[in-house]
Design brief:
Layout (H helix, E strand, L loop, with lengths): L5 H13 L6 H14 L8 H12 L4 H12 L10 E8 L5 E8 L2 H14 L3 E2 L9 E10 L4 H10 L4 E6 L2 E6 L4 H10 L3 E11 L3 E2 L3 H16 L3 E6 L1 E2 L2 H8 L1
Helix pairs in contact: 1-9, 2-3, 2-4, 8-9
Keywords: Cytoplasm, DNA-binding, Transcription, Transcription regulation
GO molecular function, one term: DNA binding
GO cellular component, one term: cytosol
Length: 252
């Protein structure tokens, strides 16, 4: 199942630039609100909420903000009548690259307008629901760091119900599973002593578009960066491949 991690690798390289602004408090807080609303508002019994809180703490969000977000999700926070909903948007970037956007919003019209403007200004088009999602499959992914023995990782991954794994860089692996099995896989790997740095749901492209033109690459990365910076946007995934050298030049 090689190729699963192409987008992850792109995101990691792009993170060097993105680290200057980081994931905003708004985005991370919204993820907590939705997780608390979709299940019990207790991280001990809600895996999605637990992972959202872990990411928020890693980003330095104060505990008071986290507790407030949980209360909003549970409906126990006074004075907040806004209702967030999760929406997936789809579109095409320069060169026909397929792009999926996962958003959390309390105003669909505002979010759609912001996304449409981002696409049109950067050589892309916001499309209809279903126009590109058929090119992606959602999987659960555990990122494991400090892997010393691949055989032990494979054994632990299989016991946790994984479908496959892929070494992405030195001593770091990504282990893939069905969406419904992510929590079980995460727990199994940790019980076997592996360091799980992240557990998330990710859209995996079934095919990729090669981007080799510098102008096209620059426009595409600018589009993705613009989409990523919107408060309503939680995650952006695309199906392109790009040489590292071209990426470095395009992001500089």
């Amino acid at each position: 199942m090689a190729g699963h991690s192409k987008w992850a690798n792109i995101k990691r390289q792009k993170a060097v630039v993105d680290a200057k602004k980081g994931k905003t408090f708004t985005q991370l807080s919204r993820a907590i609100i939705v997780a608390a609303r979709s299940g019990v508002p207790d991280p001990a019994g809600n895996f999605q909420l637990r992972t959202a809180i872990e990411k928020a703490k890693a980003a330095g969000i104060p505990n008071d903000n986290i507790e407030r977000a949980i209360a909003k999700g549970a409906g126990t926070f006074e004075g907040d009548g806004s209702q967030l909903e999760a929406i997936r948007y789809e579109g095409y970037g320069p060169g026909g690259v397929a792009i999926l956007i996962e958003a959390l919003t309390d105003n669909r019209n505002r979010t759609a307008a912001d996304l449409r403007a981002a696409f049109s200004k950067n050589g892309g088009n916001l499309g209809e629901t279903g126009c590109v999602s058929w090119m992606f499959n959602q999987k659960g992914v555990c990122t494991v760091e400090g892997v010393e023995d691949e055989e032990q990782l494979l054994e632990a991954a299989l016991e946790g119900g994984a479908e496959s794994y892929e070494m992405t860089e030195d001593k770091t692996a990504e282990v893939f599973a069905e969406v419904t099995n992510l929590e079980n896989l995460n727990q199994s790997l940790k019980e076997k002593g592996f360091q799980v740095a992240d557990a998330e749901l990710r859209w995996i492209p079934s095919n990729n578009v090669e981007v080799s033109d510098p102008d096209q690459a620059r426009s595409l990365l600018k589009l993705i960066d613009t989409l990523d910076s919107l408060d309503d946007v939680q995650n952006v995934t695309a199906n392109f491949e790009m040489p590292e050298q071209l990426m470095s030049v395009s992001m500089s």
